[in-house]
Design goal:
This protein is mainly alpha-helical and about 425 residues long. It has 18 helices and four strands.
Length: about 425
């Protein structure tokens, strides 16, 4: 999973770095980067919304089928599948495409949560040593270690926050070239620092100056006590993030119920849907403000996109789309795939050669067979066999043309341009 996330995060990190170098502010870069990722996912969201709207439109037909075949599950499944084919709807397409945003989301989160890796381009060894310094200079090393392990994906933001709180101790460890640990009265252990250098602290400090939005430092962790926050927005950020997620959930549920009044109550699922935004508020108070700010931006853009897509896919437009898709389904029935036509032609030829009525040959007897030495009939020559097979193919194509409404000229076999030997 880590390799897949890195595979996605590396190109996204390159884009994020370009945006940051252009605007010079990480808070603004998060806004533009979130907008960029939503635009990437717009085609997937459009297809999901289109499929969902069309499924909701045929719900009355599905309800009639369920009522009609309530005691015949196999017949119900067959008729439901037939209805989907007639409407040219794939009921599972939304499930398949939903994995694409989920996979991309992990890459986006990696870029936002790891600015030292994807923006400042520090390698893993430097970040690991910075993490060790944070643990060693803290008053409660064990608690800090657990916090970093528990928030491994967001550890770079936590490292930045700790560095800004105590830059002098951080610098002293780097200049000393080593750090020491001691746990529960055990013998002190020493770790040498070889990857990190003296430029790390001023570079991260300078970067942190741009890690702001509206004067609020996004590397700081919000506090539940309003008076202990450096700004009002820092305290409000987790709350605004949760409210925006809650508004998105309420709106989606309202529109789904409006489009499909017969939609069953999800019961326990509603607890999770409405509980997650509240949980995110608590979580945003335990991590740097940059995380909550990204959640706020992402939820806001998602809300705007959902409103726009629901307005676009109104009942009239969905009905027109349905007519187009139904016509496509009819055309697919009238014009089978090339593989299907070849198979049917082959079956027709086999039927005629193995007991069926052979096709009439132009310029020859009406009922020739390939050979029958036991019955004393004359064996066909090679040229006669070619003529016979050509006639069989022609007859099969004629039957296919009649079946699918094509002209015989369009389905005729290509002319044989071979020259006969004299």
């Amino acid at each position: 999973m880590g390799s897949l996330i890195n595979l996605i995060a590396i190109p996204l990190g390159f884009i994020m770095r370009l945006i940051y170098s252009w605007v010079g502010n990480y808070g603004v870069a998060i806004i533009l980067f979130t907008l960029f990722t939503r635009l990437i996912l717009l085609p997937v969201s459009y297809k999901q919304q289109k499929n969902s709207a069309r499924l909701q439109l045929i719900n009355p037909k599905l309800a009639k089928l369920r009522e009609k075949y309530k005691d015949q599950p196999e017949k119900l499944q067959l008729e439901t599948t037939k209805l989907y084919q007639d409407e040219n709807i794939n009921p599972y397409s939304s499930c398949l495409t939903s994995f694409i945003p989920l996979i991309l989301l992990w890459g986006v989160l990696a870029v936002v949560y790891r600015p030292m890796t994807y923006i400042m381009k520090y390698d893993k060894a430097v970040i690991e040593e910075a993490k060790a310094i944070v643990i060693s200079i803290d008053d409660d090393p064990q608690s800090t270690q657990k916090s970093l392990d528990r928030n491994s994906m967001r550890e770079e933001l936590l490292i930045m926050d700790k560095l800004l709180q105590n830059p002098e101790a951080f610098t002293a460890c780097i200049q000393d070239g080593r750090i020491s640990f001691s746990e529960d009265g055990e013998e002190e252990s020493v770790q040498k620092l070889s990857a990190i250098d003296a430029s790390f602290v001023p570079e991260v400090t300078e970067f942190a100056k741009t890690f702001t939005i509206g004067g609020t430092n996004l590397s700081e962790t919000p506090n539940t006590n309003p008076s202990k926050n450096s700004s009002v927005f820092l305290f409000l950020l987790p709350i605004l993030s949760g409210l925006m997620q809650l508004a998105l959930t309420v709106y989606m549920q309202y529109m789904q119920k409006k489009k499909n009044p017969d939609m069953p109550d999800m019961g326990g699922m509603n607890i999770m849907l409405y509980g997650m935004p509240l949980f995110s508020v608590w979580l945003a108070f335990t991590v740097p403000a940059g995380v909550g700010f990204y959640w706020l931006c992402s939820s806001a853009f998602s809300f705007i996109q959902s409103v726009a897509l629901y307005a676009w896919f109104n009942d009239e437009r969905v009905e027109k789309i349905g007519e187009i898709e139904r016509e496509k389904a009819k055309q697919q029935k009238r014009r089978p795939s090339m593989m299907q036509m070849m198979l049917e032609q082959q079956e027709e030829m086999m039927r005629q050669q193995n007991g069926g009525t052979p096709a009439k040959l132009s310029g020859g007897p009406a009922n020739r067979v390939r050979y029958s030495d036991d019955d004393g009939e004359r064996k066909l020559s090679r040229s006669e066999m070619e003529e016979y097979n050509t006639a069989v193919i022609r007859e099969a194509r004629k039957r296919m043309a009649e079946k699918y409404g094509e002209t015989e000229e369009n389905s005729a076999p290509p002319a044989n341009n071979k020259k006969k030997k004299k």
